Amino acid sequence: MWDAMRTVRELEKAGYFGDSWPTVLQRCLESDMTVKGDCVLAISALGGCVWNLRRSLIDQELLSLSQFQTYTPPDQQVTSPEKTLALSQQYVVLDGHTIHNLELLRNNYNGTRSGSLHEQLDKTVTGFGRRMFEDWLLKPLCSVPAIEARLDAIQDLIDNHSTVVEIRNILRGLPDLERLLSRIHALGSTHRSTNHPDSRAIMYESSIYNVRKIKDFVAALNGFKASLKIVSLLGDSSINSKLLTQWVATFPELNDILTFFDKAFSHTVALKTGTIQPQAGVDNEYDDALYELTTINSELDDYLQTQRTALKCKTIVYWGSKREDRFQLEVPESAVGSKQPADFELKSKKKGCKRFHTPTIRKLLARLMAAEDRKELALKDQTRRMFATFDSHYTKWMQAVHCLSLLDCLASLSLISGQSEGYVRPTFDTTSVKPLLDIREGKHPTIASTLPDFIPNDTVLGGDKSMMLLSGPNMGGKSTLLRQNCIIVLMAQMGCFVPAASCHFTPVDRIFTRLGASDRILAGQSTLYVELAETATILNHASRHSLVILDELGRGTSTFDGTAIAYSVVEHLLRVIGCRTMFATHYHSLVEEYLESPNVALGHMDCMVDPENDQKVVFLYKLAEGICPKSYGLNVATLADLPQEVIDLAGKKSLEFEEALKDTFACSELQSAVRNAVAAGDIKALRKLWCDAVVS
Length: 696
Fold this sequence. Notes:
The protein is an alpha/beta fold. Helix 12 runs antiparallel to helix 15 (267-273). This is DNA mismatch repair protein Msh6.
């Protein structure tokens, strides 16, 4: 691999950027083209990328676009001082575990888009719009003004629904302009036409291949023409949001460029023949060759008239079709006779006629063949040069594609926000000193879309109570509640309306999730190790602005060790970090530790239990205050169709364990009381404890 200085030398040698290097790279270099000390590793890494791109023969196509950006890790973007809740970073950070656990892109059942949040929200109709929408989904905004600008634009589009329908119909007919721009850029490259293996390839179906290239080019031109109709539609509508008015004002001016390409060549002919024949005034080399051909043909016609006059024969004509034997003077023998000019060179003859070349004809023919070669060469390279001319406006084309992508995404969110039942515009708190989260009647968007009777729930975190310990029966809806709150926050900061009666909170900088349990056999990592490694990521990177959900932490080890680990994690999140946290657990002893805590809210997923058979449980899926006394695991065993004898045995053993535990606790309490009485020298208390023990 290359070091930093070799990378710079290779970039210079290859001439990817010409005389104008990208600004990002210029910032990494001194005036003498040496690499700055803090940029050595970045430039070396770039060298590895360039080396790999060269092996793939796509280095010129990609690097010549000069699309470089500085990457700043989110953890290095320091938030503003603790007393304010404004965030300085641009996007919410979502790690891989969160993307997986919240099923943002794929479901966890079979790995498809079905049932994912992406599938639920994405109503874009263009390829480039879909890519931007996925980017929005994975990078929610942190800036409240930027979020509000999106929400204002969405409200504007909801109010102008008929315009949105027309715009989406136009967008639906557009090709994937973003990819076509990259393809045209590659096909217009001088390097590709001379040094790339493509230039030496023999295309057996070259006409089909050429027609396909022209089709893509014409499709791109027609797509940008259609985009001008969208600008006109939006400009004539009654929009007043800042984002959309800026969209109309900043859409690039494409009329002149598109007019040029309309007049530059006949699109119909090009699509039929697979070649671009430029109109006059478009290509100087082609025009010069045509002018030269016209001049030479005129000179040949004049010379023919001269010979007719000299030989006094009007029937003299040019004959011949072979490239080097054309323009032979076919002269009747009666016109030549014994008066054949000395410079006439006999080339062929037929009955009654002789055919001659002259030095003048040979000179004109040589000039004609040279001009034809220049024309053929100009025509052969005309498609590439036309593509290169188109690519010279790459910045404008990409600006237009970005605008169209933005509008496609906003239109998609407007459909979700305006046509989904029970969706409300979120509001953000920028004045509160402490982070808060207040969601009323919130729903999980993907589940609620398939279950009309989905039970909504309220969630309030923040102020003095930044943490909620959540208990409840198995399958009672704890994990769904955890996920739905994260998704509602994500949707809100994405700039979308949310499925709730109201949603008010301070922006989050990161969303962390610790859900499920699995090992990694090939990595030699047990279930507990995986759980704790994910928890370590949360504890090391969460800030007080983060939103954290943890589900049943510590279940990969013994009950006592698991409870101890869960307790210490809760304490660290509560006392050290102070972020908004929802912690679901079946460790009732852990929940009881915080019965009197003013900083922890206790909640449980409510259920109804049959008083005659506690194995029969009806889930209410409703968050209620307080703790749940049992987890009702045997009810889940019944639902899972375990054999009845197994369930009966488990029920008996469960009662035995409970009684043994009660005896242990009672013994422990008695020992403690005896020690206290001895320490106090209280004989009466000792006698009473003895009598009570004998009686029991």
